[in-house]
Amino acid sequence: MDTDEHLERRKAWARAFTPAALKEYHPMIAARAGQLVYALGQQDGEVDIAKWLNYFSYDAMSDMAFGGGSELLRDGDVNNVWHVLDHSFPAATFTSHVPWLGPYLGCVPFIAAAQAHLASYCNNLTLGRLERGSYYKDLFHYLSEEDRPGNPQPSLSQLVDDGVLAVIAGADTTSSALTSIFYCLLTNPDACQKLQAEIDQFYPPGEDPCDIKHHLNMHYLTAVINEGMRVWPPVPSGFQRLVPHNSGGATLGSTFVPAGTAVSLHSYSIFHDPRNFSPRTSDFWPERWLLATGRMSREDAGLAPDAPFAHNDAAFAPFSHGPMNCVGKNLAMQEMRVVLCAVLQKYKLQPRAGWDPRSYAVGYRDFFVTTRPPVPVLLRTRC
Fold first, then answer.
1. What is the mean pLDDT of the chain?
2. I want to staple 24 with a disulfide (CB 3.0 to 4.6 A). Which of 137, 262, 275, 339 is the partner?
3. What is the dihedral of CA 157, 159, 164, 170, to 10 degrees?
4. What integer is the mean pLDDT of 23-51?
5. In this predicted model, what pLDDT tens digit does every residue of 239-294 receive, in sequence order?
């Protein structure tokens, strides 16, 4: 909440997400993506891909944050961590609107137990990581000032808090975005075929789909990711900000907002506003991103020459804006590109017979981050 403290605490995070640091993380991401592909291939019949994407993102973030310690892809959720995370979001969302109530709710037994379970788990991972040091430059290499040996190490409580933050902010949002993207591809087979054709072009059989060398040239892949986050934003209600208490208030457009007021820009509403994105405002239509950048003609996009078209890049901010935006944006994009290429190079996706796609919208709940319903798929190995 304190801007100066935030900016000071953010410095270590900023060092942890430079291009050089991201290059250090890539082998971890690639290994977990390969493990995900293998684990999916070991399942018989129907697969809830949402669950496996949760496991991937948590394992990958634990590798990057703590140098390891989580094996959900191998063992399942034996420590009940993901279950606790998923069920703690409603209470966390409530207290974000009445933050003064948080310390009191922490005294309620079942809420306190959930908090203690997650804190204990992250505390053990943090202690283990600090005792053994770093085998490679993971996130804690920067958060614990190991990259600057002359600086004092932050307190254990701060490192545990940062570990919890890394898991929630880094794992849940990425798995949410990936789950929604796979849902969109499952329910839009033409888009899925186009994406697989692009993957086949850059990563034909025998090529390593986890190698990132082609990613920035895969424009349809980027369009699919952007469109998935536009239609199903991982943080639908947006990021909360506070008008400073000593500011005298602020005027937003024609509206005066008093000092001390909490404000957020509702991402879902902005992304689904036809003034920003049209036509097919609420549809999954990746072509809009290629059309907006001149990489696709109206004809190829299926848009009449005289049809109105709106595409407001400034309105698309799934990672927020400004000095308090998501510092891990580039890591999240890298993870999503690697997973989509790895899974779709290997498998065809088919919806389970009798599954109602409308159940996803019904079960997609906004608790700052989202809770998602199962996405049952049948996977077939591609020839």
1. 90
2. 137
3. 160
4. 94
5. 888 898 889 999 988 999 999 998 888 999 999 999 999 999 999 999 999 999 99
Give the 3-state secondary structure of the chain.
CCHHHHHHHHHHHHHHCCHHHHHHHHHHHHHHHHHHHHHHHCCCCEEEHHHHHHHHHHHHHHHHHHCCCCCHHHHCCCCCHHHHHHHHHHHHHHHHHCHHHHHHHCCCHHHHHHHHHHHHHHHHHHHHHHHHCCCCCCHHHHHCCCCCCCCCCCCHHHHHHHHHHHHHHHHHHHHHHHHHHHHHHHHCHHHHHHHHHHHHHHCCCCCCCCCHHHHHHCHHHHHHHHHHHHHCCCCCCCCCEECCCCCCCEEECCEEECCCCEECCCHHHHHCCCCCEECCCCCCCCHHHHHHCCCCCHHHHCCCCCCCCEECHHHCCCCCCHHHCCCCHHHHHHHHHHHHHHHHHHEEEEECCCCCCHHHHHHCEEECEEECCCCEEEEEECC
321/259 Cα distance (integer angstroms): 21
Angle between helical axes of 156-167 and 109-132 (0-180°, round to 10): 110
More confident residue, 114 or 332: 332
- Is 341 among the annotated ligand-binding positions? no
pLDDT interval class at 114 (50, 70, 90): low
Domain architecture of the chain: domains with CATH: 3-187+348-381 (1.10.630.10)
Express each pLDDT in 53-77 by its tens digit: 999 999 999 888 888 888 999 999 8
Structure tokens at 36: 């995900």
* pTM tops 0.90, yes or no: yes
Q: Is the distance from CB of 226 to CB of 316 less than 8 angstroms?
A: yes
- According to the model, what pLDDT value does residue 172 have? 85
Tokens read off for 205: 């059989």
In 3D space, the residue among 307, 355, 333 whose CA is nearest the CA of residue 224 turns out to be: 333
